[in-house]
Write a structure and sequence with these properties.
heterodimer, A: alpha+beta, 5-stranded mixed beta sheet, two-stranded antiparallel sheet, 4 helices, elongated, B: mainly alpha, transmembrane (chain B), PDDEXK-like_dom_sf (chain B), DUF83 domain-containing protein (chain B)
């Protein structure tokens, strides 16, 4: 009797394990402990603040892999075969924030779209590009800032399309 | 002595700026609010759904571990008794 019940429970355990793995895979996250989560309104996380460089932000998740923290940015409504540059740079900013606040640079960050996850290697070049971008933005705070692309589709997808004096109209 | 405080830039603003510098400027400096509130609210809903999936996967893993432990205890007990 005990063996029959034991085998039944083992089967249930297997079903639960498969369910867990499938759910995590569908979320685009690797199987690793989540130590920070800002996707839930019930438990908002504190932002990461790097005063030295004047950068602040809240990644969607921080997961722990081999003792290192990895930032994760989630764009669940986005489907694309290649990651958007804007999303990659936002993720790079979280890598920089993590490095500044913990003293340890993450080896990479993850960008989760609806059906695939991309990895951004956090290299010295990415770090420099992010710092340069922050400086550029800070300088733009005191100046008028022009449209930085010539893509009508991008304009059309922008929330400022109807009020932007530089929007590209077809 | 600490230097003057730098204007704070949010990481999400960096994404906006790369998408379009003008759009970022219109929000940050000109103080305008983007349209398509419904789309942003939908994005928030999707984020919450994602969080539920991640939390549920953890719960399932805990249940699997508990059931597995109990199953092994019963199987070992059964074999030893038999």
């Amino acid at each position: 009797m005990a063996i029959t019940v034991g085998l039944a429970l083992l089967l249930l355990a297997l079903v639960a394990l498969i369910g867990a793995l499938r759910l995590r895979a569908s979320a685009g996250l690797p199987w690793a402990p989540v130590v920070y989560r800002d996707t839930d309104a019930q438990s908002p996380e504190r932002p990461l603040i790097a005063r030295r460089i004047g950068l602040v932000g809240k990644p969607d998740y921080l997961i722990q892999k081999r003792g290192r923290l990895i930032p994760v940015e989630v764009k669940p409504g986005r489907n694309a075969t290649r990651p958007y540059e804007s999303d990659l740079m936002q993720l790079a900013a979280y890598c920089l924030l993590l490095e500044e606040t913990t003293g340890v640079a993450p080896p990479y960050g993850l960008l989760c779209y609806a059906d695939r996850t991309f990895r951004l290697s956090y290299t010295a070049q990415v770090r420099q590009e992010t710092l340069a971008l922050i400086e550029e933005m800070r300088a733009a705070l005191d100046n008028e800032c022009d449209r930085s692309h010539d893509d009508p589709a991008r304009c059309l997808g922008c929330g400022f399309f109807s009020m932007c004096d530089q929007a590209l109209r077809r | 002595m600490p230097g003057p405080r730098l204007p704070i830039i949010r990481a999400s603003e960096i994404g906006e700026y790369v998408y379009c510098a003008r759009a970022w400027w219109l929000r940050r400096v000109a103080g305008l609010e983007p349209e398509e509130r419904a789309r942003r609210e939908y994005g928030t809903t999707l984020h919450h759904r994602h969080a539920r999936s991640v939390a549920l996967s953890r719960l399932f893993a805990i249940i699997a571990a508990l059931l597995g432990t109990l199953a092994l205890a019963l199987l070992i007990g059964g074999w030893m008794a038999g």
